[in-house]
Every structure is written in structure tokens, then in C-alpha cells.
Write a structure and sequence with these properties.
Elements: H1 2-14, H2 20-38, H3 57-83, H4 87-112, H5 118-143
Helix pairs in contact: 1-2, 2-3, 3-4, 4-5
């Protein structure tokens, strides 16, 4: 998974965005994604720091970088909704902002509760994030 984190982080760091604030959020999210990849969780199940007795310092680092990335990914479509054009992109960003915010809260709640559905909640969240990345790419290509 480390190469995937690195490629995703690098891609986010260089992706064009329709607004300077969104571009800055993407760059910081890219850096945080790279950190999450370079400081991997100690086990595939991602032991939860301060709750799971098997959690390591690496799990703390991975967790902090991941939560920071998720928070930035949640902020990006919300910021685009407030600041970006064209109108279709603004509307879609608003809808995906609601999706990502709901997903972020759900992923956090299911993780905290040690729910068997936490992986599903995380993937639902990521679906909104990656849909927004795709919409951003289309908006940028359309603008030239």
C-alpha cells in the first residue's frame, strides 16, 4: 500500500485546482498522504492508538497523518462549493462536500466504536473524495 499512498500524495500535490485555497489544501493533503504512507500502520487492521493495547508509535503517526488527510479532503469540496466556478462544479462540490462530511463523521464514529463496519464507512467516504477529484479534473480540463 505504501506505493499507492506515495502516488496518491504526489498526485494531490501537483493537481490543478480551480482556486488558490483549494490548491493549497490539496498540496497539504498530498504531503499528509505521503506521511501516512511512509509511517505505516503496524498491522492491516490499523490498531487504534490509545484504545488498542497493541498500537505502536507508528500507529499514532499513521493515524495523525490519516486524520489530517481526511479532514483536508473533507474541506476541499466544501471550499470549492463556496469559492469556485463553473456553476455545475460548484453545485457538485456542494453535494460531494455533504457526502464527504457525512462520510468523515461516519468513519470516525465507526472507528471509535470499533464497529465491524468501519472499513465500509471509510470506503464510502473515499468514494466521495475520489468523485470530487474526478470532477475537479473535468472542471480544469474544461477551463483549458
Amino acid at each position: 500500500m505504501v506505493p499507492g499512498f506515495l502516488v496518491l500524495g504526489l498526485s494531490s500535490s501537483v493537481m490543478p485546482a480551480p482556486d488558490v485555497t483549494v490548491r493549497r489544501l490539496a498540496r497539504v493533503a498530498g504531503f499528509a498522504t505521503i506521511v501516512a504512507g511512509l509511517v505505516p500502520a503496524s498491522a492491516p487492521r490499523c490498531p487504534q492508538p490509545f484504545v488498542d493495547p497493541e498500537a505502536t508509535a507508528s500507529d499514532v503517526g499513521h493515524g495523525v497523518a490519516s486524520v489530517a488527510t481526511f479532514a483536508l479532503w473533507t474541506a476541499m469540496p466544501i471550499t470549492a462549493f463556496r469559492q469556485c466556478e463553473p456553476g455545475w462544479f460548484r453545485s457538485l462540490s456542494g453535494a460531494l462536500g455533504i457526502w464527504t462530511l457525512t462520510g468523515f463523521v461516519s468513519a470516525g464514529a465507526t472507528t471509535t466504536a470499533q464497529s465491524a463496519h468501519r472499513g465500509l464507512a471509510q470506503r464510502a467516504f473515499l468514494g466521495g473524495v475520489f468523485a470530487w477529484f474526478g470532477a475537479t479534473t473535468i472542471a480544469e480540463l474544461a477551463q483549458g
